[in-house]
Design a protein that fits this description.
The chain is of the alpha/beta class. The protein contains seven helices and 36 strands. It has a 20-stranded mixed beta sheet that branches. The chain has a four-stranded antiparallel beta sheet with strand order 7-9-14-13, with no helix packed on it. A four-stranded mixed beta sheet has the order 8-15-16-12, with no helix packed on it. The two termini are about 55 Å apart.
């Protein structure tokens, strides 16, 4: 038996079940193909998720389940397929809360709608009441921005993002001196660790715990001075007759006396600034030498400080911060505040913080933070998820293996390794969105690899015919049919992905920065979890900044 025939038999046996969604005469047609003898069948939940992501409605779950169960490889109508109507560009005027500036945001047209014109911009400004400080040059620039074509990207669909520009400025009043709060303690002690004389940052010197004694002055309000009149973009006068005021609130363990705030108890000073309000409280601190069988699991409403070790298998929960004096292994740490690991985490540790996470190193662990994750030396084969940023800027700063997902930015010194370890870096999208689209991306990659192998066998048969006049026409015809089948699968997946992707734009301000070196095997992603850039062939030893473009990743070197 020829190698081509053996390849066909293996391919037929391992071919997974597949499904496609196409449009035919206004109906969404679902086709489910059966798997090979050793392949996995199509799962109902995957079909349902795909229908929901594509925004299709009117289908019946029982009918879908019946089609999936039968998997006869024939198209079946399951619901209406409604093509969106043309939508013209939309012009929105956004006036700042203080009316000192006005932006125009142009939502691009869709499905062959009309672009915005200069007349449209002027009408929108007049309707919104913007009369003062309009800049014609900014209006011209905004129109030019909406017409700029994106470069060719990795996705078949090239779509435009909304464009926004400030087009009017008010005349600012002459500023006075606002009221302010004079703190006796650092209001952001966790943001900047100390550096030694060699400029090496020491994460053990974070000054996270700021303590005070009873009756200590914590803060006081300094009054401000009045300013002078200005003019808003609406042409309204701005008179600053009163200085800007600040609000200082006493939290737990603190008290106000006039414009001064004092500690009622001895403990940790906590300063919170939110919605223009500053709240200062004093919390008790639970200090433990170890967490082990002598203490059991820990659940404490304030800050927990563990000087030595946390035994594997134990759980620490805190309403404040968690500070671990030594490295941790297979433990669970859950904090409403920050989590500070003076050492690091290894061995399947699970760490969740409502604030930031600081560590010297992380290995084979899962970290999630609503704020940022900051690591000094390295993160290896770990899952990092941050609501803000992932930062490895100090020490070795190596990020290798695993998956790192941040809503805003990722910064590291080195990405990947010389061993070409697969390292996924994703920014600009909420982490939970990625999980739903990952199955579709994996299916597309598998189809691409199978098609590549099929075409390699076709080339071998064609070369044999050309050189020796020998040809296995039956095998060649089967391979050709399979090639067309997999191309159809790819095309259908691409179309579905385009439709989904059009509604899942990455954050335009997202960025991924590699300061020193990026190795092969590193995958850079923005948006919905579809690979956009892969470092291939050889490492790059340049400062590299990745930002989302219009349908592609832009790579900037310095």
């Amino acid at each position: 038996m020829s190698s081509h025939s053996e390849f066909l038999q293996r391919l037929d046996a391992s071919d997974p079940g597949r499904f496609s969604l196409t449009a035919d005469q206004g109906q969404a047609m679902l086709t489910v193909h059966p798997p090979g003898a050793q392949g996995k069948p199509v799962v109902l939940s995957s079909v349902i998720a795909r229908l929901e992501l594509m925004g299709l409605s009117g289908w019946d779950k029982a009918r879908i389940a019946e089609i999936v169960a039968v998997c006869d490889g024939r198209p079946h109508a399951v619901c209406p397929w409604v093509e969106p109507a043309p939508v013209d560009a939309q012009v929105h005027v956004l006036i700042a809360e203080d009316a000192m500036s006005a932006d125009i945001e142009i939502t691009p047209p869709a499905f062959q709608g009309k672009e915005a014109t200069l007349a449209d911009l002027h009408v929108a400004l007049q309707t919104a009441g913007v009369l003062h400080g309009i800049e014609e040059s900014s209006l011209d620039r905004l129109l030019a921005m909406q017409g700029e074509e994106p470069g060719a990207g990795a996705l078949p669909l090239r779509f435009r993002s909304a464009v926004r520009l400030t087009v009017a400025h008010g005349t600012a009043p002459r500023p006075g001196q606002p009221a302010q709060i004079k703190h006796s303690f650092d209001p952001a002690p966790r943001k900047a660790p100390d550096a030694d004389p060699s400029s090496r940052v020491d994460f053990r010197k974070l000054h996270v715990i700021q303590t005070c004694e009873e009756n200590t002055l914590l803060a006081r309000i300094l009054p401000g001075l009045s300013g002078e009149m200005g003019l808003t973009v609406r042409g309204e006068p701005i008179t600053l007759s009163e200085p800007h005021k600040v609000t200082l609130l006493a939290g737990h363990g603190a008290r106000m006396e006039g414009d001064s705030l004092f500690a009622d108890i001895a403990g940790q000073v906590r300063i919170s600034e939110r919605d223009g309000l500053t709240t200062i409280s004093v919390e008790e601190i639970l200090k433990l030498k170890n967490v082990d069988f002598s203490t059991g699991h820990i659940d404490f409403p304030g800050t927990v400080l563990v000087e030595e070790r946390i035994l594997e298998g134990f759980k620490v929960e805190a309403g404040g911060d968690i500070i671990a004096g030594k490295s941790v292994g297979q433990v669970i740490l859950i904090s409403a505040g920050d989590i500070i690991l003076s050492g690091g985490a290894a061995g399947n540790a699970i760490i969740q913080a409502g604030g930031d996470i600081y560590a010297r190193f992380v290995q084979n662990s899962t970290l999630s933070s609503k704020g940022s994750i900051m690591i000094e030396e390295m993160a290896m084969n770990s899952r990092l998820t941050a609501g803000a940023a992932i930062l490895l800027e100090t020490g070795r700063g190596e990020l290798m293996g695993g998956e790192s997902v941040a809503s805003q930015r990722i910064v590291c010194r080195k990405a990947g390794s010389r061993a070409e370890t697969r390292t996924g870096l994703t920014a600009g999208i909420k982490p939970e969105v990625m999980e739903e689209l990952l199955r579709m991306e994996n299916e597309l990659r598998e189809s691409t690899e199978t098609l590549r192998r099929i075409e390699a066998h076709l080339l071998q048969i064609e070369e044999s015919q050309r050189k020796h006049g020998k040809s296995d026409q039956e095998t060649y015809d089967k391979l050709k049919t399979l090639s067309e089948h997999y191309r159809s699968i790819q095309e259908n997946l691409q179309k579905q992905r385009e439709r989904i992707y059009a509604t899942l734009e990455p954050d335009a301000g997202a960025e991924i920065i590699v300061l020193e070196a990026i190795y092969p095997g590193v995958e850079i992603t923005f948006g919905a979890g579809i690979r956009r850039y892969v470092q291939e062939r050889k490492p790059s030893f340049l400062y590299t900044r990745f930002v989302p473009g219009e349908g592609r990743v832009m790579v900037l070197h310095t």
